[in-house]
Please model this.
Amino acid sequence: MSTEELFREDAYLRQCRATVTAVDGRAVCVNRTVFYPMGGGQPGDTGRMVLADGNEARVEDTRKAGQDIEHVLAETSPRPTVGDTVELVIDWERRYRHMRLHSCMHMLCAVVPFGVTGGSISEDRARLDFDMQETLDKETVTARLNALVAGNHPMRMRWITDEELDAQADLVRTMSVQPPRGAGRVRLVHFEGVDLQPCGGTHVASTGEIGAVRVQKIEKKGKHNRRVIVTFDE
Model:
């Protein structure tokens, strides 16, 4: 049985009720979840699992396991039993910061129009590596990012088939990691007038929610690689 990924359609869901389908040590799988699993440079969600008896288990990480999603419990947390109904609650402030920075990375793709060779996201900063030799000016990139944020561009999602994606190869910006194929469809994230690309991560509804940002550092990581690190300007 595969886990229904509620966060794919609505990243603002903070909790849900679910049925436990498997327990393997600290890893718990359920039939549906609001927890995003680690992937695409975005960390897995943390939070809590309220058990049937009212006790709470701490979810320290979330990971993909085939078609299932594993909620990794703290070592000392109580365990549910297969068939139990549980309440899943994400650490919303942490997730929302991931959403804002992940969306900001899409803005960065628009500002720096080169292939992406790597990236990562945390609560406080995010980075992308670009396949390029050109020099980037930190203040110029910061100004262009904030202009896109201030434009409050809405985000829309739609799904296309694997075949449609293969026919539009230019949509894929990431050179090191390809969008997952084989499920029959791929999700496109479209920040209107700014960026359109396949992405499975969680995003804000419009760029204004990202808030002010600044480029912390631009590093030369090889002859054909420039790393851009962005943080919140708080």
Remarks:
- Residues 95-232 form a domain with the Threonyl-tRNA Synthetase; Chain A, domain 2 fold (CATH 3.30.980.10).
